[in-house]
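Appendix B, Record 12. Input sequence as logged:
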Amino acid sequence: MTEWRKSTYSVNGTDCVEVGQGVGVRDSKAPATHITLGPDAWTAFLAATKAEKLAR
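Logged structural output:
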């Protein structure tokens, strides 16, 4: 079983992305499914997310 954690940027704790170490990401509203990400994809995901945040 994977321990999932919610993003610290989640405002109300219901509309958020959850991360499972070594597993991937999932939507907190649809926890039965997830997207598997390898190390390179995870790094790219974080870089894109940070770039989006900085662009705002």
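DSSP finds one helix and four strands in the chain.
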